Hints:
Elements: E1 4-8, E2 11-15, H1 26-36, E3 42-46, H2 52-55, H3 61-71, E4 75-79, H4 83-88, H5 90-101, E5 105-108, H6 111-118
Parallel strand pairs: 2-3, 3-4, 4-5
Antiparallel strand pairs: 1-2
Helix pairs in contact: 1-3
Amino acid sequence: xxxxxxxxxxxxxxxxxxxxxxxxxxxxxxxxxxxxxxxxxxxxxxxxxxxxxxxxxxxxxxxxxxxxxxxxxxxxxxxxxxxxxxxxxxxxxxxxxxxxxxxxxxxxxxxxxxxxxxx
Length: 119
């Protein structure tokens, strides 16, 4: 499946293919934002598609990627099990807890949880 815009929870979402190219930096985020401008309000990225450096907060990759989405006012949802990454980093756990309180960036375990948040 290629990246495609579908309605989830009544909201147009660009659902990224889990088999797509790794998302490793801000340019990759901008490419997805550009694709979302075709009508999506949210970009849903499978957790496994994000490069491992995203989950190591000391690299700054997560901050750069999330900031692009905030700047362009496109919501970001990371979808999938990231428990192994969270177990290794208290800072990542804190980031997820804080971002999930907001409306711009969410970390969800599956598409059902995303649908509930959007609905």
